[in-house]
Amino acid sequence: MIIKLANAKVYDPVHGASGDVRDLYIRDGRLIATPGPDERIDTTHDLSGCIVMAGAIDIHTHIGGGKVNLGRLLLGEDHRHDMAARTALKRSGGGLATPSTFTAGYRYAEMGYTACFEPAMMLANARQTHLEMADTPMVDKGAYVLLGNDDFLLQLMAKGADPRVIRDYVAWTLHSAQALAVKVVNPGGINAFKFNQRRLDLDEPNAHYGVTPRQILHTLSRALVELGVPHPLHVHGCNLGVPGNIETTLATIAGAEGLPMHLTHVQFHSYGTEGDRRFSSGAARLAEAVNANPNISVDVGQILFGQTLTISGDTMRQYAGCDHAHPKKWALMDIECDAGCGAVPFRYRDKSFVNALQWAIGLEIFLQVDDPWRIFLTTDHPNGAPFTSYPHLIRLLMDRNYRNEALSLINPEAAAYSNLASIDREYSLDEIAIMTRAAPARSLGLHDRGHLGPGAAADITVYREQGNPEAMFGRPALVFKDGQLIVRDGEIVQVVHGSTHVVRPEFDPGIERDLSDWYQRYASYAMENIRVTDEEIEDEGRGGIHVQACRDGEAT
Amino acid sequence: MIDSTHQPVSRNAVCPFCSLLCDDLRVAVDGQALTLTGPSCGRARAGFADGSIEDVPLVAGVQASAQQAIERAAALLAGSRHPVFGGLATDIDGMRTVMMLADRCGGSVDHMDGDTLARKNGLLATRGGISTTLAEVANRADLIVLFGEDALGEGSRFVERCVTPGDSLHPERLAARELVVLAPQSATRALKGISVPTRHLPMAMSGAAEVASALRALLAGRTLAARAVAGIRTTDLAEVAARLAAARYAVVVWGKDLSSAPHSEVAMELLNELLKDLNRSTRAAGLVLGGGDGAASANAVCAWQAGYGLRTSFASGGPEHDPTRFSARQLIEDGTADLLVWISAYATRQTPPADLDCPTIVLGRSGMRFDVVPDIYIPVGTPGIDHPGRLIRADSSVSLPLPALRESGLSSVRQVLGQIAALVLP
Question: Nearest 5°: phi and psi at A161?
């Protein structure tokens, strides 16, 4: 069966297509160059007047797992104000900040997204995270497993363990959690908070293990490089939200010493202490450092005004922010000598100096980082704003007049502190296609996603070309998932399940002897039982697993 | 292949009978007979000994074929204006299927322990809280304060696993560990032989709110005029408060005997706020036990699929939550619900409440006996015995897989509801 997308204006940066009008062909869920002479075209979609891109990929969105579910139970208001009724095709649900799983999948697809990655999966909670992702239809998914606050690793580091042992442990964790990448949150800080440390700077030692965040970052980055894991260490740095944390962030970049590193939601890590309020933008300095260090990639974590819920593994910083909770309630957990989580509701107000400046800082970062291959569009859903605000965010990036109008409405003092008005840059469709498709796919090692070349999975989004990017990106004309038409005119027409992407670097299984002993002595379950099996994810054919290749590691 | 030797086989098992999910059980499996051979507790022994492998359904009390029972159940469900799915003592996959049916049929969902869950959910939704998990308690706590005796005695391995573990990542914490028990006099016997220093202050559960309030006031530096609070000397409470303040990582634990006691919302909220107060200067966290009979799993699945915890209704076309109005009992008694689908896969005694006057379909553990004969009874297996399953633990962070132990031929809740759904849904 062959589907032809005719007369499409194609934006496919991987293959240099920038609005070139051409035909695309789909066979058995994949793009092909051209059909054979004997092959019949079964369906043709005339896409005159339409823009075609690969399906969008969200590299950092909190859509599943215990902390999200804690958030749902904490902030029922989010669901009361946004109920999504069932239809003949769709399950009911709702919620903007912590949508129910089905609703999250539908809404992503309705915006042209075909893959979403949950960035904070604890091994202790991996089974539930995969269960929630399995109940998130339409899109492919994957998750980054948390390391760097687990007592096992910190104990290894404190003992000065052989890097090969640490590498095996990292690989074992990726396998056991069925993860695609590794994330570290406030390196060592979640653990330190359990010992009642209330702050932890880059070179400050954990009170118990004596290990510093810098050492943790270096150890994990090095392990991932040696294992050949495609996505670099995904770093939620120290001092999130603290005025002056731009210094920490710049030191973190310098401390990478050329090793690849992805700094996530950098907006929350780019604050200076200038001005009367001792709160200023560090965006220009951050952008300068990113531009100068090709080993660094970032996603922004843009904030947008309104009510949301912040959910994070960073218990230390979430606790520090709990007095700002709106409404006034928050939940925090220490979890299984592994990590933790905190959920704090928050309302970003455009008339607040700090919130308005946060908004401007995010946009300044977007507009001052030169290379769209190393900056990804995120709101750190839901921490900066719900993912449903992406079309609005894209318009802010693509339309300078619209942006300046928005700037004129925020707290004027904050606007005066920002250089946003002086930035003329407008993102092009090519750049949007890079930052929301091609670049995240490349960074995650998804070779057959994020582009429209022959052999690519037919995850394709078709937009009606129009002047208003928010309207265009908010309601695609057609979305294909693995060649199946799933969305027409912004509405779901077919429900599909999507697959789970994982990596499985090689390692010496001898590490399991140490781990098994450790689990027997200290854990509250057997090592075997915390592993998530393939059968659980495949679930009698409902889910699939894509194992992404690792590079040849630089193992020593 | 038939095993002609009939030698019992020893298998690893995960216990489905309370929400601690102990996964170190050994079971001798001899055909269909199960005998616990390793570590266990009274509740586990009773649970593994319960039930049968009888798989013949009853329609109006009369034996019927599986097909007849499924078809009859489907007809009842198809004709129902508002089915309420109650009991919900099942596993994650059973609950996912319940949710699909409840959503598609415009029904509602409530657990057999819905009152307790509603209080726990209510506290989280109004105040939040600060909590911890089993391994953190076992490794990190230097002070454990039990409110109530749920975690004590023959029916629980909480003390063995979390209070007196054989080893700790932080041996200095284990060495310094103290246990304070605020529970009725009846707890005394269960405290014998606990190997950490233990202080029992006898307290009726109805006094928990007063005691929590006094502790909070003492921690805030206030002086109490009363010489005793709920029968406990104020000086003793002041000592507990001092220990809480001095602890590096205090854990306050409570279970169902607190959350079902009079004024328990007040007591739980006060403990919750006390823990928040403590964290201003030191570390402390709560641990709420309970969530057994699949409650923790049912609540979590409901939260991720519908956005709310249990007592959620889909009657208006999408999820709505009301912890009072949407209890199964309330919905049946006020005439809103016209069919009860009772799911109860763990204990044969957990039959539908006999005083509920409503057409009823029971998916119950094989071997159930009824005082009031339901319209349909379909025997089902128990997760972790008759079929594999997955369950979420009391601390709501960890979920574990439960392997099947025998081939009894009993269906799972997921399978039976799936067959019913295939007939009901377009």
Answer: -60, 155
Are B21 and A525 within 8 A, CB to CB?
yes
Q: How far is A421 from chain B (nearest CA, A)?
A: 40
Whether A101 and B320 lie within 8 Å, measured CB to CB: no
The model's pLDDT over B305-321, given as tens digits with 9 standing for 90+, comes to 999 999 999 999 999 99
Find the mean pLDDT for residues A391-408: 98
Q: Is B400 on the interface with A (CB under 8 A)?
A: yes
Question: What is the distance between the alpha carbons of residues A70 and B150, in angstroms, rounded to a whole number?
Answer: 24
Judge whether B85 and B108 are in contact, CB under 8 Å: yes
What pLDDT shows up at residue B2? 47
Point out the residue among B139, B162, B316 whose CB comes nearest to the CB of A522. B139
Residues with Cβ within 8 Å of A284's Cβ and at least 6 positions away in sequence, in order, are: A364, A368, A419
Q: Cis link prior to A382 (omega < 30° from 0)? A: yes
In chain A, the percentage of residues whose pLDDT exceeds 70 is 99
**DSSP state at residue B185:** G
Q: Tell me how close the Cα of A136 comes to any Cα of chain B, in angstroms.
A: 9
C-alpha B66/C-alpha B46 separation (Å) is 28
What is the spatial distance between Cα A286 and Cα A263, in angstroms, rounded to a whole number? 11
Strands in A388-538 per DSSP E? 460-464, 478-481, 484-488, 491-492, 499-503
Across residues B5-20, what is the average pLDDT? 92
Return d(Cα A510, Cα A515) in angstroms, integer. Answer: 9
A85:B285 CB<8 A? no
Average pLDDT of chain A, as a whole number:
97
The residue with tokens 């059973």 is B94
Nearest residue of chain B to residue A68 (CA atoms): B304
pLDDT at B5: 59
CA distance A327 to chain B (A): 9
Type and span of the H or E element at A307: strand A306-312
Residues of A in contact with B39 (CB under 8 A): none
pLDDT at site B27 = 97
**Cβ separation B397–A72 shorter than 8 A:** no
Mutate to test the interface with B, among A70, A81, A90, A92 (most CBs of B within 10 A): A92
CB contact under 8 A, B135 and A524: yes
Minimal CA separation from A544 to chain B, in Å: 18
Q: What predicted TM-score, i.e. pTM, was given to this entire model?
A: 0.98
* Interface membership of B287 toward A (CB under 8 Å): no
According to DSSP, the β-strands at B312-313 and B108-109 are: antiparallel
What does the pLDDT read at residue B1?
43
Tokens 């999975």, residue located:
A457
**Cis bond upstream, residue A260 (ω within 30):** no
Verify whether the Cβ–Cβ distance B167 to A522 is below 8 Å: yes
- CA B307 – CA A83 distance, rounded (Å): 9
Pair of tokens at residue A97: 């900040």
pLDDT of B78 higher than 50: yes
With residue A311 as reference, give the H or E element that holds it: strand A306-312
- Domains along chain B? 54-113+293-424 (3.40.50.740), 118-288 (3.40.228.10)
Residue type, position B156, single letter: S
Task: Check CB contact of B247 with chain A, cutoff 8 Å.
Answer: no
Contact B15, B47 (CB under 8 A): yes
pLDDT at A222 over 60: yes
Q: Examine the pLDDT at A197 and tell me if it is beyond 70.
A: yes
Mutation site for B-interface testing, chosen from A153, A334, A534 by largest number of B Cβ within 10 Å = A334
Mean local confidence (pLDDT), B316-333: 98
CB contact under 8 A, A76 and B92: no
Spatial contact of B367 and B50, defined as CB atoms under 8 Å apart: yes
> Are the C-beta atoms of A61 and A381 separated by less than 8 Å?
yes
**Which chain B residues are within 8 Å of A346, Cβ to Cβ?**
none
Mean pLDDT of all residues in A368-390: 98
